[in-house]
Write a structure and sequence with these properties.
Layout lengths: L1 H14 L6 E12 L10 E12 L3 E10 L2 E2 L5 E17 L4 E14 L2 H7 L1
Length: about 120
């Protein structure tokens, strides 16, 4: 039985030997932001999900979605920030241990503030 498990583990590790030109990746991140000029908001905490594909070893395309937890603000308002976008990442310089990356992307950030919108206009 131990030989069978060892064979399965060795097989799974051998599939991850960079034998493919395209390799997908999925990321789950903790996100924190500290906005200025929005009343009593100290910080925003949330999560981000990213899905991407690395092609040819030096170019990857990634899409992401960020959602922050609802935060209470002054006068009973709540904010519900969210963001989504797409990035192209280029491996400019790869020294094995250290990589220099260049990224170009588009993102859209939304802030549903309820009474916060009225407060900001006043």
């Amino acid at each position: 039985m131990k030989k069978l498990y060892l064979t399965l583990i060795a097989t799974m590790l051998s599939f991850n030997a960079n034998a493919f030109l395209i390799s997908p990746h999925v990321g789950l991140d903790y996100v924190s932001a500290t906005p200025n000029g929005f009343g009593d908001i100290d910080s925003l905490n949330g999560g981000a999900l990213s899905v991407g594909v690395k092609a040819l070893g030096f170019v990857s395309v990634e899409g992401y979605y960020q959602k922050y937890f609802s935060t209470s603000v002054a006068h009973g308002s709540k904010t519900k920030p969210a963001a989504y976008g797409v990035d192209a990442v280029f491996d400019t310089l790869n020294l094995g241990v250290v990589e220099l990356l260049t990224t170009v992307g588009y993102g859209k950030y939304t802030l549903d503030g309820g009474k916060l919108d009225k407060k900001m206009k006043d």
